[in-house]
Amino acid sequence: APKSMMREIGIAGVLQQMFGGHFVGIIAAVLVSIFVIREFSAGTVKNLVGKGYTRPAIFFAKMIPVIILTLVFEAVVVAITICMGWQEFSATAWGDVAFYTGFQFLFGAAIAVIYMLIGELTRNLAAGISVSIGMLMFSTTLTAGLDLVFHGLEMQPSKYWVLDLMSSCPIADFETEFIVRGVLVSAVWLVIAAVLGGLHFRKADVK
Prior knowledge:
Elements: H1 2-20, H2 23-41, H3 44-50, H4 55-84, H5 94-122, H6 125-149, H7 162-168, H8 176-203
Helix pairs in contact: 1-4, 1-5, 2-4, 2-5, 2-6, 4-5, 4-8, 5-6, 5-7, 5-8
């Protein structure tokens, strides 16, 4: 039952289950894929190109609502979780909850742009959702394998992949190293996805 689970692991623990598991990531993948790919299929993007807007401007203008959409969804998940755990209000370390939520928003913004990149590359709703969810489900398994490969070099690729950070983010005792790495890794992946998406959109046909 939700209340017994809430009492056992607390609000922060439930949030960790929602974000650290694949629930939030899968729903976000579907939402972003629908939003991005419908813009192409409905002819919205073609109309904007026809009006003379530059392609990079169109792409980056679309990126902002994609990030907002993802963050709003994540905020709803957090709000529902807090409402479900209202009885645990006095026992909750709200500073930790705020910190954890802030980091998940940060990771969510980067992941949203990665999903947008996939939507831009596929431009097919079924393919966009499938590839996005596939990346979500299997990329962390790949990085775990790479950790083993690079074990002798004391290098862990999983430390620098935003989906790994999303799932491994602590709910308490945040270390400075994790905070700095989390911010930098999120920013780098957001920029990489945005640049790749913008470059592809600049050269790709718009139908």
